[in-house]
Write a structure and sequence with these properties.
Strand content of chain C: 35-45%
Order of helices and strands of chain A: HHHHHHHHHHH
Helix content of chain A: over 70%
CATH superfamily of the largest domain in chain C: P-loop containing nucleotide triphosphate hydrolases
CATH topology of the largest domain in chain C: Rossmann fold
Distance between the termini of chain C: 42 Å
Order of helices and strands of chain C: EEEHEEEHHHHEHEHEEHHEEEEEEEEEE
Radius of gyration of chain A: 26 Å
CATH class of the largest domain in chain A: Mainly Alpha
Distance between the termini of chain A: 69 Å
Number of strands of chain A: 0
Chains: A mainly alpha, B mainly alpha, C alpha+beta
Oligomer: heterotrimer
Largest interface: A-B, 88 and 88 residues
Strand content of chain A: under 5%
Structural class of chain A: mainly alpha
Number of domains of chain C: 2
CATH superfamily of the largest domain in chain A: MetI-like
Structural class of chain C: alpha+beta
Shape of chain C: elongated
Chain lengths: 296, 303, 363
């Protein structure tokens, strides 16, 4: 066998090992969800059961956490998408000399540990509440509010990066054309810029929600007396626990798989549509040229 | 500034400015600044804040280094040790991830063909939609004393007694490396993908052995990606909380866990803020060191 | 309201750089007016000042006698056709055309009716529901025109709209643009670096260089009676001869060049002793046989010749050490030009202009 063939074999072997490393833990957890024992484990196999799935929904604490997580996710979407959009637009317009400073400030939350963001949000709003002499029931001390703010601090940077990438492909003369045709600035924004950014808006919303939904490091400081799915989970896992957690993971993986495939299909369909449009334009080009010929 | 209003109109300009100012001032700058301020203050009940006892002090930082004034030891060995261990272990995790991911990133970016490469990327992303805590949990199933690995080892007769991977921190390092693989693979992949394959071919034609091609051609080109991946993985490892809580042995602590205790059971927020500042500084030093080492800008890291 | 466009001593500066210097002209209502010049000469800057995307640093832009300062592009009676067209790719053809009506709050049915009328005008009837991406280059071009016309502007501004098209289509669109202008009867202001476009379509042309309007006139005025060295060299082909005015003789000036004394029309009233350039067009040159009656005679050698169908270009090296181009109409019995052969060429003084020395366009 040549040395090149050996190297190829080694590479394939490595790739298989790598993906095993990626998937074994999840597969094991998936199996634990169906194992009929009280503790999440795969061996010994005690028989197939589905009982951990209903057990999951019977867990009131976890359900409360999920509901809170959903509300927080919606709040983070509502906050970080408009902020990220504004920050990206400002980025394209900010003076060259200020650009680096501005960029450094707004991406810094991405490069900061999540616990730091949680802590700084917590102490800042707490102090603000004290300063305003606010009621203890007011939003300054609300775990949900602080969590939305704390998470949005860095999620807004993610959404901004998504918008920036899309804006780089935006042809600014379209805005000028719309203005020139009599549109107000607000109309230009809604009728030209927003439709162009629509795919990015959806990506940003999806990313914001999912990132929020699975955030732990920031949330664990800001949420205080309340709970989210991740804080409930962390508590349960640390206690040593039942396989209903594995059941939850199976559900999450299932949803993920389905949506990943759906996104892939949608993207391929979009590509096909673009190709069809291009072919149509080429056809029109030929007809047009044929028509122009006698005019010469 | 008038140009800005002229260009965007009053309503849109107002939205842009309000949103950005709210974010930059109220969510990024002031909270960080206040946390810094807070870390130099005494731990006081709300009623006394702003009172005569609310003065600046170095005691929170002094505590991290020297321990409480009454203690017998000259230094706060426990906390300093945890801090150093966190930093060193995070560097270790970063290096493992780089070693694991570089071949894969290179393979997908330069060797694999269209559809196959796309599927591999999809496969890479998939595990990371699973919650961080559940991922750590899956490592517990794998590494626990009654976990899969121990069961296999025992059935093969390699060990008599189950190995306590959790106590030995093996599970923690494996779990941390696993958790941030994606953040290493993607920057590497993006950087390597932009390298013109002809450059590799040319080097090969000139008789370079494969390791030299990587050392002299691919890695220099992928520098921004390497820096970006390393920074992200280090920062997330050092700042990780869930994985150490779930996978850490009972006797070993992660620095974030100490911070967490100051805020929760410890009830000493200024002390926790001081520790958080120290962690932030450590990350800052790491980022600056990487920027210096790789001679690149912050913009290239955070992309 | 009439729609004459006046530039009253307009100067536009960007920091240290002056893009437009003291432009002062009046474009009549219903005129097809072109700004012609190489890229970077300031013509697009003028267009942006008329459409309202930037304000002059000094001077006034007036439309229909009204000062436009402080009036935004969305409030001016102008519509601009962008160089890249800037159609909205996510809207249908009809929605593109009706965009200006939509933002003015015109109802849906009315919008559609107007769009259909305009689609008729640009010969794209029945294609309103297509996506912009499905159109050919020439069709997009026409949609951009229809979109601009839909808002019934008093002035239509066109920024090199044909530059993206291939040669055939470009020539076709010239005819079409001119026809559309005559049909709708509004003022067209056209920006181009292509003299062919400017000469064929325009009522009048302003030739610009380095921010300065060099000359304003009809196509033939600009071509025949170029007022500056730049205009003479930029519009059409020209052979320049540099020298010094030796004498002035009525309408003519005689200048001493390396080819001896040449005579041409003294359009700018130069006096004896001033530095000058004489320009003569390739088609004004001809062979001089024996003791020909030409006012000016140049001895030269044939370098090479090019056959171009309807005419024939001959490249000559003059005795003065300078290359000269001569072009001859293909009338069927052309003489043969052998490389290295001697050729005696000449031109009539009335066909040459003597102008002050100035910037020359490099082709």
């Amino acid at each position: 066998m040549s040395s090149q063939a050996i190297r190829k074999l080694l590479v394939s072997f490595y790739i298989v090992l790598f993906f095993l490393y990626l998937f074994t833990p999840l597969i094991m957890m998936g199996m634990a969800a169906f194992n009929d024992v009280e503790f999440p484990q795969v061996v010994p196999w005690a028989g197939f059961t589905l009982r951990w799935f209903p057990a999951l929904f019977a867990d009131a604490l976890m359900m409360e956490g999920i509901v809170n997580s959903i509300w927080i996710g919606i709040g983070v979407m509502a906050l970080s998408v408009p902020i990220g959009l504004a920050a990206a637009i400002v980025m394209t317009q900010v003076h060259q000399r200020l650009q680096t400073l501005y960029y450094t400030i707004v991406v810094s939350p991405v490069l900061m540990p999540g616990v730091i963001l949680g802590i700084s949000t917590l102490v800042f709003w707490d102090r603000l509440g004290t300063f305003m002499d606010a009621d203890y029931e007011s939003f300054y001390y609300s775990g949900m509010f602080l969590t939305i703010i704390g998470q949005s601090t860095f999620i807004s940077a993610y959404t901004m990066l998504i918008f920036l990438a899309r804006l780089q492909r935006f042809d600014r003369t379209q805005e000028e054309a719309a203005l020139d045709l009599g549109a107000s600035h607000v109309q230009v924004f809604w009728k030209v810029l927003i439709p162009f950014l629509r795919p990015a808006i959806f990506s940003a919303m999806g990313l914001a929600f999912l990132t929020s939904f699975e955030n732990y490091n920031t949330t664990v400081f800001t949420i205080q007396a309340e709970s989210t799915l991740t804080t409930v989970l962390a508590g349960k896992v640390r206690m040593g626990t039942q396989p209903d957690l594995a059941a939850l993971a199976v559900l999450i993986i299932g949803v993920t798989l389905v949506s990943a495939v759906a996104i892939e299909i949608a993207q391929r369909r979009e590509q096909r549509r673009e190709l069809a449009a291009k072919a149509e334009a080429a056809r029109a080009e030929r007809t047009m040229q044929a028509a122009a010929q006698p005019a010469q | 500034m008038t140009g800005f209003f002229q260009r965007n109109g009053i309503a849109i300009s107002t939205y842009l400015i309000l949103a950005v100012v709210f974010w930059v001032v109220l969510m990024i700058v002031l909270p960080q600044a206040y946390m810094l301020d807070f870390s130099f203050r005494n731990n006081l009940p709300p009623a006394k804040i702003g009172g005569p006892e609310d003065v600046y002090t170095l005691s929170n930082y002094r505590y991290l280094v020297f321990g409480s004034p009454g203690s017998a030891d000259a230094f706060n060995y426990l906390h300093l040790q945890v801090f150093l261990r966190t930093i060193i272990a995070s560097i270790f995790v970063t290096l493992i991830d780089f070693a694991l991911c570089y071949p894969i990133a290179y393979y997908i970016a330069q060797v694999a063909k269209g559809g196959f490469a796309r599927s591999m990327i999809l496969l890479l992303i998939l595990p990371f939609w699973v919650n961080e805590i559940l991922r750590a949990f899956s490592f517990r199933i794998l590494f626990g004393t009654s976990g899969v690995i121990n069961a296999v080892l025992q059935s093969l007769g390699i060990v008599d007694q189950p190995i306590d991977f959790l106590r030995a921190d093996v599970a923690l390092y494996a779990g941390l490396s696993y958790a941030y693989i994606l953040l290493m693979v993607f920057p590497l992949y993006n950087a390597i993908e932009s390298l013109d394959h002809n450059q590799i071919e040319a080097a090969r034609d000139l008789g370079s052995p494969w390791w030299r091609i990587h050392w002299r051609v691919v890695m220099p080109h992928a520098k921004p990606g390497i820096a970006s991946g390393c920074t992200l993985v280090f920062m997330l490892s050092a700042g990780a909380l869930a994985a150490p809580q779930i996978l850490g042995g009972p006797s070993s602590l992660w620095f974030t866990q100490i911070i967490y205790r100051w805020f929760n059971t410890g009830g000493n927020w200024p002390q926790g803020a001081a520790y958080a500042i120290v962690l932030l500084l450590a990350c800052l030093v790491f980022v600056l060191a990487v920027m210096r080492l790789f001679k690149i800008s912050l913009g290239e890291i955070a992309r | 309201m009439s729609a004459d466009v006046e530039l009253d001593h307009v100067t536009i500066r960007f920091g240290e750089f002056t893009a437009v210097k003291d432009a002062n002209l009046k474009i009549e209502d219903g005129e097809f007016f072109s700004f012609l010049g190489p890229s970077g000469c300031g013509k697009t800057t003028i267009l942006r000042a008329v459409s309202g995307f930037l304000e002059p640093s000094d001077g006034e832009v007036r439309i229909g006698g009204k000062n436009m300062r402080g009036i935004g592009p969305n409030k001016r009676p102008t519509a601009l056709i962008f160089q890249n067209l800037a159609l909205f790719p996510l809207m249908s053809v009809a929605d593109n055309i009706a965009f200006g009506l939509e933002v003015r709050g015109v109802g849906k049915a009315e919008r559609r009716k107007r769009a259909d009328e305009l689609l008729d005008l640009i010969a794209l009837d029945g294609q309103g529901d297509k996506k912009v991406g499905e159109l050919s280059g020439g069709q997009k071009q026409r949609v951009a025109i229809a979109r601009a016309l839909a808002v019934e502007p008093k002035v239509l501004l066109l920024d090199e709209p044909l530059s993206a098209l291939d040669l055939k289509l470009r020539q076709h669109m010239r005819t079409e643009l001119r026809a559309i202008q005559q049909r709708v009867g509004i003022t067209f202001i056209y920006i181009t670096h292509d003299q062919g476009e400017a000469l064929t379509m325009s009522d009048r042309i302003a030739v610009m260089s380095q921010g300065v309007v060099q000359q304003i006139g009809t196509g033939s005025e600009v071509y025949e009676n170029s007022q500056t060295a730049f205009v003479a060299s930029f519009v059409g082909e020209n052979n320049p001869f540099t020298g010094k005015v030796a004498a002035v003789d009525g309408q003519h000036a005689l200048i001493d060049t390396s080819f001896g004394r040449l005579r041409g029309r003294n359009l700018r009233g130069l006096s004896a002793g001033s530095e000058a350039m004489l320009f003569v067009r390739p088609e004004s040159l001809g062979l001089v046989n024996g003791q020909g009656a030409a006012d000016n005679v140049i001895e030269s050698t044939v370098l090479h010749s090019e056959f171009e169908g309807s005419f024939f270009s001959v490249f000559l090296r003059g005795d003065g050490g300078k290359d000269i181009v001569m072009s001859m109409t293909n009338s069927g019995n052309l003489p043969e030009f052998h490389e290295g052969a001697a050729a005696r060429v000449g031109f009539r003084a009335d066909r040459a202009v003597v102008l002050p020395v100035g910037e020359v366009a490099d082709e």
